């Protein structure tokens, strides 16, 4: 037995070495025409729901009148956590081929006329979305597409998501360059995509490509609003403003959507550390550690003080009790002895207390186990929705500790209605 164990272990180790969680394995891309079954040339761009900080309601991509793919493409399968978080990942009409620069490609034209009442509605939905600062969230190669800008301290700040337009309203404006109109919404109808890739030179996995393939490191986008004045890809320098009111009779309005793609080789960043630039640009993480530490120290200090005060009073009381014991007459009770009847008295709302305690234990255990898993690295951000899925599955599984704690405490109060206790524990505070 021992012998076989010793033999099996190294074999296991050997297999464990190269192990990626499903869906997280690197994807190799190569120039079109060089497709093999280890690499593909088409870079898929997926769009997610749009959201904003100014409203709680997220909208699906096709809620707005953007360009849609011409053929029926399948949406990727989503897991439970993603669905609950409201992620709706859909295919997009952007056609990107690996290592093929595109200077300006027409995506689609949308024409609105006053004859169709639906058109005014579509335009007003776009206006409203821009006014509320709704943000696109795109995904390429399982990475979020980011927008980066330089901060005042000359550092790069990257966010996942970019606004669907910009506006000037009531003296406030969100556009990159100052606009003259006082009250207008400008739609971002052009995107500059910059895709950085690692060519695989001097890497084991890259030996099969020789300059014709690689892995995607980052995808950055610069959204722009360009008034093409009817001619796609003509550089005018003007922003495209949406009509502020409903279209009048005989009036038409056209939005031309375009995009450009630039591929840049960068062999300094390894594929395995490609998420770092997103995490680095979130500078708040250090501050949060500081404030967590800060509050922990304050809590410790305060509880220490309270404990000291209690100890001193108790000592005094005990000294007085000892003195009285020496004397003969049994006096009235005073000091800490006054509470002796109250400590084991069941509370009036024992049911509620036990039920809430049970649910609390459930949430607490869930948080603890999820945190442990996350710290061990099972729930990486590349694995979308895993955190939420994990938390929800754990919450369901941890129903038994909740029931145990709740029943145990209820019984210690001498409760009789165990059936309602069971029902309430499972129903009252459902996460
Ligand atoms: C694409 O454009 C970038 C920047 O202009 C250039 O460095 C790169 O070599 C171009 N790539 C191809 C495949 O033409």
UniProtKB/TrEMBL annotation:
Gene Ontology CC entries for this record: membrane
InterPro entries xrefs: EMP70
Lineage: Eukaryota, Metazoa, Ecdysozoa, Arthropoda, Hexapoda
Presence of keyword Methyltransferase: no
Pfam family, one: EMP70
Protein name: Transmembrane 9 superfamily member
Keywords annotated in UniProt: Membrane, Signal, Transmembrane, Transmembrane helix
Transmembrane portions of the chain: 289-311, 355-379, 385-407
GO biological process entries: protein localization to membrane
PANTHER family: TRANSMEMBRANE 9 SUPERFAMILY MEMBER, TRANSMEMBRANE 9 SUPERFAMILY PROTEIN
Record membrane topology: Multi-pass membrane protein
Family classification: Belongs to the nonaspanin (TM9SF) (TC 9.A.2) family.
Localization: Membrane
Domain of life: Eukaryota
